[in-house]
Amino acid sequence: MSLQSFAASLGQVAEALQRTRNVLRARLDYLFFVYGTAARWFGAFVVSVVLLIGDLLPEPWSSAIFWAGVALAIFALGELLYNGVRSFLRWTAVDLEPRKLPFDWRGAQWTDTGRIVPISTGVSPELAWQSPEVDDLLRAKPAFISDPQGSLESDRFRLPDTLTEIGGRSLRHRSARRGDGSTRRLPPARFNGRLVRLAAEPTPRTLTSGELVFQHVRYYDGESSNEVWPLTYSHGARAGRSPVEPFVVDRERRLLSLDQARAGNILGISLFAVTRDDQIILVRQSPRNSVSPGAFASSSSGSADPEDFGWHLPSPQRERRALAGVMTGMLRELTEESRVRRDEVIDATATVTGYFRWLDRAAKPEFTGLVRLRVASEELSSRAFTGGESAFTVDLGFLPLAFAIAEASSWRADPSPPAKRQAAAVERFVADVQQRYPGATVSPSCVGAWCAAIDFLAARPEWLVESAAAR
Question: Are residues 104 and 82 in the same domain?
Fold first, then answer.
C-alpha cells in the first residue's frame, strides 16, 4: 500500500469515527432531554459503582463504603427504572396529528397596529405577524446606529412541564418523515445545542429607549414547542388544540408578547447578500434540513448563537448592542452557508431590514437583513462547501438585483392593502425563482426576508447608491 493510499484510508477512518461520535452524542442529547429525570439517577448509579470499589480500601473503611455503595446502587437503579418507565408511559400515551383547520389569529395582545401577512404561496399560505412601526424604526438607519441595549438573563429557559412530558412524542412525530418522503423510527441525529431566545418584544419604545432581553435556550426546547404548533391532540377534551397553544396566545386568541410567551422562541436570523456584480445569493438547502428541506433559503439563515453577542468573553469585550449582535449572527451564517469569506463583507452596508413573528411556528421571532459583498457571483459558484454546513447546503442560486429594484418600485406604487400587496409580491418572487430553477421551492423565512428587503429598498433607495459606492 502506498503512503498516499494509507493516508486516504486513515482519513476515511477518522471521518467514520467522527460520524459515530456525533451520532452517539446526538442520541445521548435526545435521551437526556426526553428522560431527564431518569438520567439524573443514572449519575447516582455511576457514583454507587465507584463506591463499590471501596472494598479495595483498608479496614475499617472498606466495608462501610462497600455497603453504602450497594444501598445507593439499589436505590438509584430503582429510581432510574421508575422514572424512565414513567416518562416513557407519559409521552407514549399522547397522540398528536396534523392541524386540520388553520388557526384563527385575532391580532396581538399588546398593540392594535400589527398586521398579518403571507410568507408563502398557496390556498393556505404560511403567515407572519408584523409591526409597521417597528419596521419603520429598523429601516430608518443602518444597524449599529439606532440600536437598543441587549442583556442576557441569568437563568436558562425552562420548557413548561406539559411540553417537557410529551417531548418524546413531539420530537418523534415532528421528525418522523424524511425529506425524501420516507419515515424514520427515531429523530434525526442532531445536537441539543445552546442557542439564543428573544425574551422581550421589540416595540417602538424598546428600540428607542429600552433594551432587548435574551435568554439561553436549547435546540430541543424549540423543537418541542415552536415546531409542535402544526400538531394538535387527536382525542379527548383537548382534541384539535395544539399542546403549545396556551403558551403562545391568550384565551381570545391574541398573540402573547415575547416576555409572556413560554415557547422556546429561538431567535431566527435571515439575510440577503448582494455580490459585486449585483446578484442576490440564494442557498439551496439539503433534504436533511429540519425546516423547509430542499428549499431555497436566503443568503444566510439560521438561529442566533450566544457567541454572536460575545457573552462568553470578558465584560469589556462583550457586544452590548442588541442589533449589532443580531447582525454578527447573520454574517456568521453567511460565511458558513454561502461560501463567503468574512473579509469580503462590506460591514458599512450591513443593515437590519425588518422583524416578524412566524405564526406557523408558534410565532417564532425573526430578524432580517441586507448587506453588500466585494466578491462576484462567479467566484462564489466556483468554491466548494466546507465544514459541517456541507451536509445542509446543496448549492447556490442567484437573482439579479434589478429584479429587487423593480419590485421595490412596484411596492411603492401599489395602493393595495399591505396583506394583498405582499401576497402579490410573494407570488412574483416565487414564480421568478421557479422560472430560473424549475421545480424549486422557497422557504417561508426566505420569503419573509425578501419582502422585508423590498420594503426596505422602497423606503431607503439611497442604500443602493451608498452600498454600490462602498464596493
Answer: no
For residue 421, give the nearest of 400, 450, 451, 448 by alpha carbon. 451
Q: Measured between alpha carbons, how far is 159 from 258 in angstroms, rounded to an integer?
A: 14
- What CA–CA distance (Å, rounded) separates 421 from 402? 19
Residue span of the structural domain in which 88 resides: 3-95
Mean pLDDT, each 10-residue run in order, the chain (471 residues): 65 66 66 62 58 57 63 67 70 83 93 94 88 90 62 91 85 59 52 89 90 93 93 85 94 96 97 97 82 87 91 64 92 93 95 96 97 96 70 85 96 89 94 95 95 95 90 76
Can you tell me the distance from the alpha carbon of 429 to that of 425, in angstroms, rounded to the nearest whole number?
Answer: 6
Which of 62, 78, 95 finishes a domain? 95
Report how far residue 38's alpha carbon sits from residue 87's, in angstroms, rounded to the nearest whole number: 8
Same domain, 157 and 103: yes
- CA distances to 143, 196, 247, 313 from 214, rounded to whole Å, are 18, 7, 18, 16
- Give 344-347 contacts, CB < 8 A, sequence gap 24+: 344/373, 344/374, 344/375, 345/273, 345/371, 345/373, 345/374, 346/371, 346/372, 346/373, 346/374, 346/467, 346/470, 346/471
Task: State the chain's maximal CA–CA distance in angstroms.
Answer: 91
Q: Are residues 85 and 132 in the same domain?
A: no
Q: Per the omega criterion (within 30 degrees of 0), is the bond before 60 cis?
A: yes
Instruction: Report the SS3 class of residue 407.
Output: helix
Domain count, the chain: 2
Contacts of 260 (CB under 8 A, 6+ apart): 109
